[in-house]
Amino acid sequence: MESLQRLSFVSFIALLAYFAFLASAELHVREFVIEPKPVKRLCRTHQSITVNGQFPGPTLEVRNGDSLAITVINRARYNISIHWHGIRQLRNPWADGPEYITQCPIRPGQSYTYRFTIEDQEGTLWWHAHSRWLRATVYGALIIYPRLGSPYPFSMPKRDIPILLGEWWDRNPMDVLRQAQFTGAAANVSDAYTINGQPGDLYRCSRAETVRFPIFPGETVQLRVINAGLNQELFFSVANHQLTVVETDSAYTKPFTTSVIMIGPGQTTNVLLTANQRPRRYYMAARAYNSANAPFDNTTTTAILEYVNAPTRRGRGRGQIAPVFPVLPGFNDTATATAFTNRLRYWKRAPVPLQVDENLFFTVGLGLTNCSNPNSPRCQGPNGTRFAASINNQSFVLPRRNSIMQAYYQGMPGIFTTDFPPVPPVQFDYTGNVSRGLWQPVKGTKAYKLKYRANVQIVLQDTSIVTTENHPMHLHGYQFYVVGSGFGNFNPRTDPARFNLYDPPERNTVGTPPGGWVAIRFVADNPGAWFMHCHIDSHLGWGLAMVFLVENGIGQLQSVQAPPLDLPRC
């Protein structure tokens, strides 16, 4: 009887805790109005596509356990969809956002409400357009605080500072894309990088709008750094200040200190910064890490970390003393980029799958499509070709008549096939001198099926076709563990022995070392259609993508929920 009473008491306490959790969870109802607004940068004003007239867009601040209902109203002239980058969207691919993958786009004059719940996630994520190059200006931070009463696994910072790194074109980004799609050549590189939408002191007509962050001596702040750029990995540093890395892609890490971080498109990195230097003004700066043999934007964006008691000049030439500039790595410093990523570790023992059910080997890289008339204005790539990209020689083509998830749910044939190859169709020296006969991929709309709760390992192998390169690969609907990486060709006999299965970093976007490989593992516990693609948007448009179809499990709690009634139609 006494044990029964004890059990009832424990159950009662658990029930109280559950109801307390429900009471603390909030519903955030917002409207995102997609509309053109005049934005002036680099001396010129453009009608840029914005959210609620803001560039960058509004920051969403929520807690683990909260729900969101974001109604996107499209008042622009382009189709659009919004992706909540890094949100797992458990059993709810309808809210994920990539156009023609989980939904048809929101047409001009129409709207769609994204409804989703934050389930056991906290940290820095972000949202952005997932329709062609609209995310050049349509993006913002998504900050998930811990549940009330749940502390960080590190000392609480005084405050948070979101740092959104972006790219700016001095023309309509959609026109830049349209030109590249017509010619088959690489798109023009950006004209500036930005920090929170502003280029900074080193660009024309920009100094007056440079972002400034006041800070008190001794204060520790958390910089939530997001690379929202379309096409470029970046180095980021703050002059004379050390950065303590505590989180990547909304997953806590074992803290370590560095003077510079490397962050790829789509990735987030949280760092703690303590104002322990002489009271002055210090530049924070970002510039390209360019691992490919290709043109890139070789400029530098800056913002200013400004001690509130920083001195000013006296006498003639009064004014503020020029900020101190940080030491940034060279644009091709792969050694520094690799050293940084190799230090990342999960903050405790990670629940990595130890047994593997699906062992996949994906080559990722560029290619060239031959033209019947190499002198055509539509064949302006190398030697009269058009640029392409692929995974396992399959160059992904978006459907148009329906989205893959809707076709899968409705049983509609003819939209996609499920014969995506688990390994390359031909084995070759992936990082060596590749025969030109292997440079042209095959176009198609192919998916790969996974059983519910299958343990999945993917080795992502870069190739030297056209050029080796760091490809930031993003998997929708999942976080995964980065269990190993290296340069050269992956060796399935010897490399797995070096895998870190204890505390590998957890991410949603991971870069392939240029001329190398990276191995990830995850449990396929989220049914639906989930996009995997390079987060360099030029490469995504060329076809560096594929789709996983994760089958339903048993019962309602292991199955995709029904689509919402207002889901857009193609």
TrEMBL record:
It catalyses: 4 hydroquinone + O2 = 4 benzosemiquinone + 2 H2O. InterPro entries: Cu-oxidase-like_N (IPR011707), Cu-oxidase_2nd (IPR001117), Cu-oxidase_C (IPR011706), Cu-oxidase_fam (IPR045087), Cu_oxidase_CS (IPR033138), Cu_oxidase_Cu_BS (IPR002355), Cupredoxin (IPR008972), CuRO_1_LCC (IPR034288). Its cofactor is Cu cation. Binds 4 Cu cations per monomer. Its EC number is 1.10.3.2. Keywords: Apoplast, Copper, Glycoprotein, Lignin degradation, Metal-binding, Oxidoreductase, Repeat, Secreted, Signal. Residues 35-147, 160-309, 419-552 form the Plastocyanin-like domain. PROSITE patterns: MULTICOPPER_OXIDASE1, MULTICOPPER_OXIDASE2. Residues 1-25 form the signal peptide. It is found in: Secreted, Extracellular space, Apoplast. Belongs to the multicopper oxidase family. Lignin degradation and detoxification of lignin-derived products. This is Laccase. It comes from Brassica rapa subsp. trilocularis. The lineage of its organism: Eukaryota, Viridiplantae, Streptophyta, Embryophyta, Tracheophyta. The gene is A04p028430.1_BraROA.
